[in-house]
Amino acid sequence: MAILDVLVYPDPALRVVAEEVTVFDDKLKKLVSDMSETMYLSKGVGLAAPQVGVSMRLVVIDWEGARYALVNPRITEEEGMERAEEGCLSFPGIYEEIERPGKIRVAYQDEDGIPHDEAIEGFLARVFCHEIDHLDAKLMIDRLSRLKRTFIKKKMERKAKAPVTSEAQER
Ligand code: NI
Q: Residue 111: which domain range?
């Protein structure tokens, strides 16, 4: 297994719409295990392939022991809206309240190409929606008010340009 680099906003790869997966081979399984390992190490609950610079419709999720590898996932139904705080490995240190459907129905394939269709609700539905957004090049800041979005964008852009790492700044 290998630990992958997680891209941080404003990396342009986060704004590329991911491509449909058509080949279910050992390379895909290796990517699923590398992405899972990277997610665990980063203490995230979900990671989408574009976040590691791979333009594939692939997501890994592990929330309270519910583990998923979603290939070509599609939300087919959504119901109710709920607000809750969420974060993103591509926006380290940023946590914002975001409105998402409380219940969804999702169709996807697993890493062997077997189709699934499931109803998901609560915080897990939020994780699914957040990660599937990444495949469409949509980021959590796109769902905030213009004021908050601008503030976070500027903060992240400033951090990206900083000549020293945030760790060095803290010292
Ligand atoms: Ni994210």
A: 12-164
